From TrEMBL:
It comes from Saccharolobus islandicus (strain REY15A) (Sulfolobus islandicus). This is ZPR1-related zinc finger protein. The keyword Metal-binding applies. PANTHER family: ZINC FINGER PROTEIN ZPR1. One of its GO terms (molecular function) is zinc ion binding. It holds the Pfam family jr-ZPR1.
Length: 172
């Protein structure tokens, strides 16, 4: 049986929003069976309510590609961890999201990933794109979710998910 998260950092800082010294920063080290050790950050301001949450890897593994074909509503409830370093591709929906410097890792369901995508790319997506994502969220469009993770930390918790090595190439 695994232990719960352990506090590895705890401090009161100046809030980046309201500038008062009421920003409680707490980081936990959590050992997970699929992703290894993760740092879970839960920071919040007691004055203005601003929150910052993040999940980052504590260690790296072999680069990998994970694919899963989403064919029904039950597949949408599959648990997924997308590390901050993983690229998400959904070819059938024309979605490709590269990791960026401020990317955050998250644990969600596949349906939740589609919600996150809709929230983040909604302004860059026309009505047809938005409707296709909504139909996929309702299980009315079959699609393939692909995670490419250079640090090998992401996972999809399903027997249907396939994992293979990610071959990194130098672009120099």
């Amino acid at each position: 049986m695994s232990e719960g998260p352990k506090v590895i950092f705890e401090e009161t800082l100046v809030c980046p929003v309201c500038k008062s010294k009421t920003f409680k920063a707490i980081d936990y080290l959590y050992d997970t069976p699929h992703a290894g050790k993760l740092i879970l950050s839960n920071w919040y301001c007691e004055n203005c309510g601003y929150r910052f949450r993040d999940v980052k890897p504590y260690e790296a593994r072999e680069p990998k590609v994970i694919e899963m074909r989403i064919e029904n509503e039950n597949d949408l409830r599959t648990i997924i961890y997308r590390s901050a370093f993983a690229k998400i591709t959904i070819p059938e929906l024309g979605i490709e999201i590269e990791p960026a410097g401020m990317s955050q890792g998250y644990i969600s369901t596949i349906e939740g990933v589609l919600e996150i995508i809709l929230d983040k790319v909604g302004d860059f997506c026309d009505k047809e794109c938005e409707n296709r994502i909504r139909l996929a969220m309702e299980g009315k469009i079959k699609f393939t979710l692909v995670l490419e993770d250079e640090l090998g930390l992401s996972f999809i918790k399903s027997e249907k998910a396939t994992v293979k090595p990610l071959i990194l190439t130098n672009s120099d």
